[in-house]
Amino acid sequence: MDYFKTAPNFMWGVATAANQVEGGWDEDGKGMSIADCMRYRPKIDTNDYQAVNQMDSHEIELALTDHSTKGWAKRHGVDFYHRYREDIKLLAATGINTYRFSISWARIFPNGDDAQPNQAGLDYYLAVVQELKKYNITPIVTLSHYEMPLNLVLNYDAWFDPQVIGYFNKFAQTVIDYLHDDVKYWIPINEIDSIIRHPFSSAGLVADRFQGQNFEAVIYQAMHHQFLAAAKVVQYCHQRYADLQVGSMITRTMVYPYNSDPQNVLAATETMRDVYAFSDIQVRGRYPQYLLTTLKRKGIPLTISAEDRALLQQNTADFVAFSYYSSICTAADSTGLKVTKANRTAGVYNRYLPESEWGWQIDPVGLRLSLIDLYDRYQKPLFIVENGLGATDTLTADHHVHDQYRIDYLRQHIQQLLISMAEDGIELMGYCMWGPTDMISASSNQMSKRYGLVYVDLDDAGNGTYSRYRKDSYYWYQQLLSYGHQIPVEFLATPVPAVSE
């Protein structure tokens, strides 16, 4: 029998974000975050991410005056805050050895600018880490995953204000100091490139609070401040804790030209340069000339001091983490062409690929191409920290979920990453599928777009028992991990019948 072989230290795991799973939005001293302002709006196309997540001062005032969880999905999540022991035990039984999660900034510093941290928040995350340790599961911690304290929006200019760099780094250093004995892998900012596409959820930027200013310029300056803050995390870890590793993280959507028309090839190349501009800064330690030229052409000034440049150059990421869900095509002229979505971005429909019910095209080979591109570009270890399928799952009367479509998605993508490791020479640290349990969708703020290996009894309106039920995909992932470091090629080559209790 032929096998795919992985290194003994390969990290197989799952991934979540605090604002999508925790709940407990106003408990034990936690402050209000920007995620607590996001509603599920069923009358808006859930694929229109800009409309779903659009936030202005009126929306924030509405959130401030309504203290319920009804309609505010990320305030209740799936109650991981109270059920983390149950959830971790359930997921440990799959055989995972890695768990990526984020820390809510507002649970540690409720207002972002507090003089002292909230001890209850620190103790909660220490308890989560210790629970993972009990099952020999390695934690990977993201420090900022779409959940900055709302006070930094209301009384500062969010990430546009350079003071926020200091507040973030105080938060980061506090958490790192508290958890460093057990947490060796850190990601400062989730999908740092996403600020360009959704500036509120990524950086707390609200357009109407910058009247008379070029909002695009505001976004890019805030982006620069995030890069500085991330570099300071690298600097702090490397100077104080030699055994810690800090990674960059980007959204990696594979981009193809719509056809061989050179204009379309050029359009795809330009789009990919936009993607790489963000990882270049964190991995190579400097702004690519392409991005600087683009900003100059747009008339966008960017304040970068000599000290900033030195900080970025001297404190580069140890590994390159990325999310991968889908791919898109690009065309110089998309008039009359079908548009498709891919993780909060959009492009031209690829007629060679199937699509999910949310319109994301399913492209396993695109993952392999992404691995090749990233490794050839940076020659640094890579880490797939998000990959999964959002779908409407049906819970049967006997509490089963037959999600063969998710099994097929995972099988095909995992097959490609293993082929890439075997044939392309890729140095891959690990793979975390999104996500362990169902959770609130980041892009659409709804529950019915499910990603988990475990079904959570909860609907879009927040009704349900929160009970957990293992899906067929849970047992499939469990079987995959049972093979250890030698996975039979045939297990991934063809669909495998789902296994249930």
Structure write-up:
The protein has helices at residues 18-21, 49-53, 57-65, 73-76, 80-92, 105-108, 119-134, 151-154, 163-179, 199-203, 215-240, 262-284, 289-298, 306-314, 364-378, 404-423, 472-482, 489-493; strands at residues 3-5, 11-15, 98-102, 138-144, 185-189, 245-251, 254-257, 319-323, 327-330, 339-342, 345-348, 382-386, 428-434, 454-456, 468-470, 486-488. With 501 residues, the chain is α/β, with parallel strands linked by helices. The protein has a single domain (3-493), classed as TIM Barrel (Alpha-Beta Barrel). The strands form 5 sheets. Strands 2-3-4-5-6-8-12-13 form an 8-stranded parallel barrel, surrounded by 5 helices. A two-stranded antiparallel sheet has the order 1-16. The longest helix is centred in the middle third of the chain and has 26 residues, at 215-240. The mean pLDDT is 93. It comes from Loigolactobacillus coryniformis subsp. torquens DSM 20004 = KCTC 3535.
